[in-house]
Amino acid sequence: MESLLSLVFSTQLLAGTEPFTATKKISEYEVMEDGSERLKAVIEGEYLRASDGSEITYFRYSFGNGMSSATLIDAKTKKVYALVPGRKLVEVKQVLSNVPRSTHNQGVSASKGRAEVNGIACQAYEAQRSAGISKWCDLPQQDIRLRSEYYIRLTNSSYRLRIVEEVSDLRLGVEPPAAKLAIPPDYRVEELPARKAR
Question: In whole angstroms, what is the distance from residue 36 CA to residue 30 CA?
Fold first, then answer.
């Protein structure tokens, strides 16, 4: 479960400033040495962007006790927050130097042409990574990644992870309610530990 939770923070990158509402789903598969696969976990929920560039993804997990959480990237504070409703807790996970920002397709020399994800035409890309071939499909002008598929090689393990992320029900130009991208007032906020002076 920890590997999938960590992906929420590493893959939800603040991008453009055109607002939208959508649904985001992340599926994690174990890929054995013989090529067989086993679905390990699925998380799915609302994926929202405000016109100031702030983004939030609400997730409900299909494993464990069906717990939920949210990841908020706040354009005003430049912080990445993890919201844990069950504990009414907000943890600061990262402080960004530049908001909004985009890291889509950095270091990629050429696309693989046009493709379609859930009825929406997008620009397809592909790159060879150490753990396997990564594929993704973007809306470059809106800076939205509609689908991605990539592999993670685990240390001291007999299998790799295949991660599939997909956006559906995309409604461009729709401003989500401001309350959806705000930290609830009754939540406790845990900041990052202060760095010790050297």
Answer: 8
> Domain 2-102+151-190 classified CATH 2.50.20?
yes
Check residue 95 and give its pLDDT: 87
Contact 77, 93 (CB under 8 A): no
Per-residue model confidence as pLDDT tens digits over 177-193:
999 999 999 999 998 77
Q: Where are the domains of the chain?
A: 2-102+151-190
Q: By C-alpha distance, which of 65, 68, 22, 20 is closest to 43?
A: 68
The alpha carbon of residue 181 and the mean position of all alpha carbons in its chain are separated, in whole angstroms, by 15
Helix, strand, coil % over all residues of the chain, rounded to 5:
10, 55, 40
**Of residues 88 and 15, which shows the higher confidence score?**
88
Q: Is 143 exposed, middle or buried (0-12, 13-18, 19+ CB in 10 A)?
A: buried
pTM: 0.78
92-136 pLDDT, tens digit each: 998 887 655 554 555 555 567 899 999 999 999 988 888 888 999
Contact 45, 57 (CB under 8 A): yes
